[in-house]
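Chain A, query sequence.
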Amino acid sequence: MRLNRFDPSSINVRGGGGGGFPGGAGGGIGCGTVVIALIAALVFGVDPTSMLGGMQQSGPTSAQQGDGSAQSVEELCTQNAYATEACNALQSLDQTWQPEFQRAGIAFRQPTLNFYTGGTRSGCGSASSSMGPFYCPADEGIYIDTSFYDQMARQLGAGGDFARYYVMAHEYGHHIQNLTGVASQIRSAQNQNPQAANQLQVRMELQADCYAGVWAGKNRNLIEPGDLEEGMTAASAIGDDALTGGRVSAENFTHGTSAQRMEALRAGIQSADDTVCDRYVQIR
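Chain A, predicted structure.
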């Protein structure tokens, strides 16, 4: 995808903590956790049940930033090729979604892209790079350890720039849900009906996939041959059924099956219409 180079003055980017995992669970169930926590189960041998349970029970804590905050946006965004891609995507996502919010009469705020290595603290608690990228509504931050993209390509067979843009656009989708109030509605519904918590989370994740597709659809003039195939491969690779290999029951799925994720991404791309994504989350 031929995205324009980022303008350091137009995006919010920070450097997070580095080093080892700082302990504790990552953000709560409403924090749009990861591409999926179960990646850790396959790649790192972590018990998926205990990881998902820990994230659901964790509450927001104050954010803490590491020494990287002293770096300029230019330095952070050019630390490696993946970081530059992420910053290019962030600018494109901001430029795509802000006018949509203006037309809808909803206040828009840009999220902050946080780069970190190994582990960090967010407004939703501690996080490890083994969790993958995630969004924290408490500080409106997208958190990425860019080494995840190498793991995504090696372990899941999901490489290519559009696959990485899809990850960024998905996490941005959680930011949209936070600004529109969908995220808080989901959390409220989960609290009222804990037995349906996972099913509600799946609906929220599929909507974020759909929003990722809408972004791509609105910028289809920048799409290159092979991009859509890379996106579908990534969506399929990170479906709950693909990641767990059948070791976790459908009742414990938190992000949707491969087929569901591909369908949601495709619906967004083909329509380029965010209202199409309303089908996934309809709270009464």
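The chain has one domain: 12-280. The CA atoms of residues 162 and 226 lie 9 Å apart.
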